[in-house]
Amino acid sequence: MKNRLYIGGYLIVAIFVSLYVKPYAVWICVLAALPLFIQLLRKERDVQHLSKSALQHHSYQYVLDSLFEHNPNAIGIFDQEGKFIRINAAAETILGYSASELLEKRFSHFVTQEQYELTISQLQLATDGEPLTFETSVSHKSGYRVDLHATAVPVQLSTDAMGFILICQDITERKRSDEQVRYMAYYDDMTGLPNRRMFRDHLNERLSLARSAGQQIAVFYLDIDRFKLVNDSFGYDYGNMMLLQLAERFTRCITENDYLARTEGDEFAFFYTNVADSNDVIAVIAEINRVLEKPFVLEQYELHVTASIGVAISTADEEDADTLMKYADIALARAKEKGRNDFQIFNADMKSVSINRLKLENELRRAIALEEFVLFYQPQVDIETGRIVGVEALIRWNHPEKGLISPNYFISFAEESGLIVPIGEWVLRAACKQNKAWQNQGFSPMPISVNLSMRQFFQHNLKGKISHVLEQTGLDPQYLELEITESMTMDVDHAIQSLLELKELGVNVSIDDFGTGYSSLYYLKKFPIDKLKIDRSFVRDIMVDPNDAAIVTTIIAMTRHLNLKVIAEGVETEEQLHFLHQNRCNEVQGYWFSPPVNAVQLENMLSHGVHAAASG
């Protein structure tokens, strides 16, 4: 407007001057027009510059709008009260609402409850002018949770109003992956219980609290007795079914102040607060045993299980979780040594026991390497003729310092540690070699019985390994008798298959300790076996316990109908021998005839006969 007034005034002055100075009117008009023309040129350049700036500004705005709308991250602009002013398409996708549904609504309305307080405080800081980054979560329109990594940036909406821009990245999948990794690191994937690592972490935390409160913590290590038998007999699927049932039952034994974990295999760990002495321990163990009383149902099978438990109680000393767990483990090992289905509370003396077990393992490994074992032989006698018709090979450990050691001292540990496999292979080879040597010396051929351990029986290619030993020693298969226990036949299909393979070799098979295991009479007739051995626990009391006498009589009668031979072990008196003879038992074995003897002593018996008459 000012420019127009200047130009109008300028033109009026120029016209009046030209009227009064007529001779020079043309030049005056030309000179007057020149500044006007220059001014108009400047004005044109200014207009062009302003037009170009406006166009450039419009182009920048277009770029910013494109970045906003097409950004893969969710972006929202919010006023001072946290209400939506504008959102992009990614934000609509993350929340499941359209822009029209979100406008004028507060962002906090969509934040999950557990993240609400933190998110509100962070957004307030952004509104006050502090940019920051944080994690939060919102609820999608469909109801599921979306985890977000958010950056809040303050923005000046007008001269007197502040707001903020929120830029969010969907990290739901990453969070789920992190949670899965954490779950795998701290939880047992089968039972869903905490694992050893989480148990240790929680135990350390609880120990610190207990010391401050003057309380004690008791750690229980529990191991299911003979659980391997379930896996070996029924398969790992059944074993896993039992573990799931065990986990569920054990959760009934704890309160919110206690803790349960599956540490490995069939081993579970508990810790209990306010357990001060053995009386409290006994009360807890009684509750654990109570939930184990009911049989476990594995499809058509019902199984009763027992547990061995080791307990360690915290003291005033600065004990950490690892120390208490180690003590509980030592106590558990002691409970197993005591015969299982028992519990032991850790004491200082057990440390030496643990050291002794380690020493025993080292000495056994040396004994295997140096072949420090020897075989003793107990004759098996025909009850009618009194003639030796077979022998059982029994191992002894010829310790360089302690002399001859009974198998009762080391066989149980060898089975637990797996050393029973090389020991069993040595027994098999040595027995076959000795029997062949007796035949070469001119003694009448007779079978030699060798006990197979559970681990050996379930070994891969058992048939091939036994065949190889027979070939090495030159012993005819008919003069080898393999003894298995009833418990090895629980997996019927595997037992039948393995026994058939052994019978293909031509060896004899007997079931040892018959009457103490789980054999079904229905399946017994299907097993390709030659002989049953009546367990010594029945023979021992046949003269004083009518029940034992009835059991022995029944077993002998049953074997006759199944066309099997029967041998009674543990015969120690003439009365027992007479009872067995009356009931037509085929063979007998026991101290009444001879204890286990070395090879030279047995050769003397083979030459001159046993000292006691066999028939009554």
TrEMBL record:
Every PAC domain range: 132-183
Transmembrane segments: 7-38
Domain EAL: 357-610
Keywords: Membrane, Transmembrane, Transmembrane helix
PANTHER family: BIOFILM ARCHITECTURE MAINTENANCE PROTEIN MBAA, DIGUANYLATE CYCLASE DGCP
Record InterPro entries: Biofilm_reg_signaling, EAL_dom, EAL_sf, GGDEF_dom, Nucleotide_cyclase, PAS, PAS-assoc_C, PAS-like_dom_sf
SMART domains the record matches: EAL, GGDEF, PAS
Keyword set includes Transmembrane helix: yes
Domain GGDEF: residue ranges: 215-348
Lineage: Bacteria, Bacillati, Bacillota, Bacilli, Bacillales
The keyword Phosphoprotein belongs to this UniProt entry's keyword annotation: no
Domain PAS residues, every copy: 60-130
SUPFAM superfamilies: EAL domain-like, Nucleotide cyclase, PYP-like sensor domain (PAS domain)
Protein name as it appears in the record: EAL domain-containing protein
Domain of life: Bacteria
Organism per entry: Paenibacillus chondroitinus
